[in-house]
Write a structure and sequence with these properties.
This protein has 10 helices and 11 strands. By secondary structure, it is α/β, with parallel strands linked by helices. It has 2 domains: 87 residues, 3-Layer(aba) Sandwich (Rossmann fold); 124 residues, 3-Layer(aba) Sandwich (Rossmann fold), CATH 3.40.50.720. Helix 1 runs parallel beside helix 10. The N and C termini lie far apart (39 Å). 45% of the residues are buried.
């Protein structure tokens, strides 16, 4: 039976550090503040927003929800972002995506100030991830993967890591994070030949392809660590990951569950980024 790498204790540890940082900022008169910009009434966005607001409250971070109608114009949304960029009392901005089809995602991402981009969607933030210059913020889900590895004492140095997926949201940034921790990284995708041959020789597998059962028993070997980033709904309406958990769990050494794994760490990372952004913008050093 594999060790379950649950997200709750990872999030709890992050929250304690974040709460201490927020308290330090408040002592100086700075109230760390996150603006959540939501367009429309998507159930998944609303669910995430509620969780983020609750997490902010527990950590001493103020959360402001900016809710716009689904038919809001691109120009109106750009004005909202410009206002948030200029508002010195707002330190972090989360824009829920995907946006309605009449709005250019590229324009919206380009409009957001990288210093307030606490979910790593701007080119400036991603440049920081790829150059390792310490500027900007990594996408929260990608960082959640390495937060889990580090919390459970899994040293990436010298390990073979296979990342399934090459998106800018997870696949590419998590690959860079693993490289920065001295792993040898292979990125696999839909054009990869003989995927099982690649994954079976890995020490660490990150599954981030966006559909269920992408990784099953044919793809894994004993002693492996599996990080399942996927959030999917199966035919029975149950939330599942990208990994066939029942087939993989008996084989590998450790695995993140879905739900209760990577996703439960993501909001903790988001709030931590907001506190870090507030500190940077006010030139305050957090210990």
């Amino acid at each position: 039976m594999a060790e379950l790498l649950k997200g709750a204790p990872v999030a709890a540890a992050l929250n304690e550090k974040t709460k201490a940082g927020a308290a330090r900022l408040r002592e100086t008169g700075v109230i760390p503040t996150l603006a959540l910009v939501r367009v429309g009434e998507n159930d998944a966005d609303i669910y995430y927003e509620r969780g983020a607001v609750k997490r902010c409250g527990a950590a001493g971070v103020e959360a402001r929800s900016v809710v716009l109608p689904a038919d809001v114009s691109e120009e109106a949304l750009l004005r909202v972002i410009d206002d948030l960029n200029r508002d010195s009392s707002v330190h972090g901005v989360l824009i829920f995506r995907p946006l309605p089809r009449h709005i250019s995602d590229a324009k919206i991402r380009a409009a957001l100030s990288p210093e307030k981009d606490v979910d790593g969607i701007t080119d400036g933030s991603l440049a920081g991830v790829f150059t390792g210059n310490g500027q900007g913020f990594c996408p929260c889900t990608a960082q959640s993967c390495v937060e889990i590895l580090e919390h459970y004492g899994i040293d990436c140095t010298g390990k073979r890591a296979v990342v399934m997926g090459r998106s800018l949201v997870i696949g590419k940034p998590v690959s860079q994070l693993l490289l920065s921790r001295n792993a040898t990284v292979t990125v696999c995708h839909t054009r990869t030949r003989d995927l099982p041959a690649e994954t079976k020789r890995a020490d660490i597998i990150v599954a981030a392809v966006g559909h269920s059962n992408a990784l099953d028993g044919r793809h894994v070997s004993p002693a492996q660590i599996v990080i399942d980033v996927g959030i999917n709904t199966n035919d029975e309406g149950k939330m599942v990951g990208d990994v066939d958990f029942e087939a993989v769990e008996p084989i590998v050494a450790a695995i993140t569950p879905v739900p209760g794994g990577v996703g439960s760490v993501t909001t903790a990372v988001l709030v931590a980024h907001t506190v870090q952004a507030a500190a940077r913008q006010n030139n305050i050093m957090l210990t």
